């Protein structure tokens, strides 16, 4: 997939599939799949590093994981810009975005519209494609007061729609829309020319993104309603680990064939 396919897929009503990915081995598996593109999400801070929120992600973390994913994946990678990295000076924001592209990303993602429109324009004019992200924006968890469905009231819906249009005008090539009512997902998708990739935004959008570990059943703890386990890799992984342990205890492993004579 290339940047041009995002618009083309929307025109052809072909749904975009996107998955988060954080490491080389997983990237090699995604490479063999039919998934269209990868997001190296700042959810890496929670899923891989065990932090409580994505606020802990920083540029060195995002660069390290983007570099690892690029080593195992030849397709389109979106790198997430971490908390505040695009909110300080224009110079710092552009330099951080450039660092993600140098690490192997094809585009960057920023959360929210207010206060971001100028940097999105500057970035797109400078050859850095930008994906927007509205609805539940996890970097603003302290302002939102929790991981809740957004855009429930008509005032919030109008505001979100306005913000989505402003992101498209600023130059975003696609928009992630997280945790909003299905009707709002549909409306935003219909109003925008660029594709809307939903996560908890219902089925009337132009694509879907899920966290790798969530969709494979590798996550533990609270699962939002929109998560579907398309397989349950966690259970056989546990069984494999326990089998190794038992074989070590019983002396069954390693066998002579697994040893150097
Ligand atoms: O960081 C992430 O995983 C994301 C997705 C939830 C869209 O931003």
Q: What form results from the Cα inertia axes?
A: globular
CATH top level label of the largest domain: Alpha Beta
Please, what is the oligomeric state? single chain
- The overall pLDDT, averaged over residues, is 97
Kindly report how far apart the N and C termini lie. 50 Å
Ligand set: 3-methyl-2-oxobutanoic acid
Largest sheet: 8 strands, parallel, barrel
Domain module tally: 2
CATH superfamily of the largest domain: Phosphoenolpyruvate-binding domains
Find the count of extended strands (DSSP E, 2+ residues): 8
- Our estimate of the beta-strand percent is 5-15%
The proportion of residues forming helix, as a percent range, comes to: 40-55%
Q: Helix- and strand-based class?
A: alpha/beta
Named CATH topology of the largest domain: TIM Barrel
Which runs of at least 5 residues are low in confidence (pLDDT < 50)?
none
Q: Please provide the ordered H/E string of secondary-structure elements.
A: HEHEHHEHEHEHHEHEEHH
CATH architecture classification of the largest domain:
Alpha-Beta Barrel
Radius of gyration: 20 Å
Number of helices: 11
Question: Would you give an account of this structure?
Answer:
The chain is an alpha/beta fold and 261 residues long. It has two domains: 228 residues, TIM Barrel (Alpha-Beta Barrel), CATH 3.20.20.60; 29 residues, no CATH class. 42% of the residues lie in helices and 14% in strands. It contains eleven helices and eight strands. Helix 5 links the parallel strand 3 and strand 4. Helix 2 crosses helix 4 and helix 8 packs parallel to helix 9. It is globular. It starts with a helix and ends in an 11-residue tail after the last helix. The mean pLDDT is 97. The site of 3-methyl-2-oxobutanoic acid has 11 residues, from strand 6.
């Amino acid at each position: 997939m290339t940047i041009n396919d995002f618009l083309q897929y929307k025109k052809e009503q072909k749904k975009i599939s996107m998955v988060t990915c954080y490491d080389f081995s997983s990237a090699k598996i995604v490479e063999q799949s039919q998934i269209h593109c990868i997001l190296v999400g700042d959810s890496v801070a929670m899923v891989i590093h065990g932090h409580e929120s994505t606020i802990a992600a920083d540029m060195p973390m995002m660069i390290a994981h983007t570099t690892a994913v690029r080593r195992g994946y030849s397709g389109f990678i979106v790198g997430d810009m971490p908390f505040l990295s695009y909110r300080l000076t224009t110079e710092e924001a552009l330099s951080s975005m450039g660092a993600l592209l140098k690490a192997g990303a094809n585009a960057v993602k920023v959360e929210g519209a207010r206060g971001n429109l100028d940097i999105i324009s500057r970035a797109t004019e400078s050859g850095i494609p930008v994906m927007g992200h509205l609805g539940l924006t996890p970097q603003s968890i302290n302002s939102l007061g929790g991981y809740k469905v957004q855009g429930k009231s008509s005032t919030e819906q109008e505001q979100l729609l306005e913000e989505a249009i402003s992101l498209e005008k600023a130059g975003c090539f696609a928009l992630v829309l997280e945790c909003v009512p299905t009707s709002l997902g549909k409306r935003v998708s219909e109003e925008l020319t660029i594709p809307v990739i939903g996560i908890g935004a219902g089925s009337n959008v132009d694509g879907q993104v899920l966290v790798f570990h969530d969709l494979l059943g590798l996550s533990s703890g609270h699962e939002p309603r929109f998560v579907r386990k398309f397989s349950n890799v966690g259970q056989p992984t546990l069984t494999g680990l326990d089998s190794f342990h038992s074989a070590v205890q019983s002396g069954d492993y390693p066998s002579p064939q697994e040893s150097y004579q």
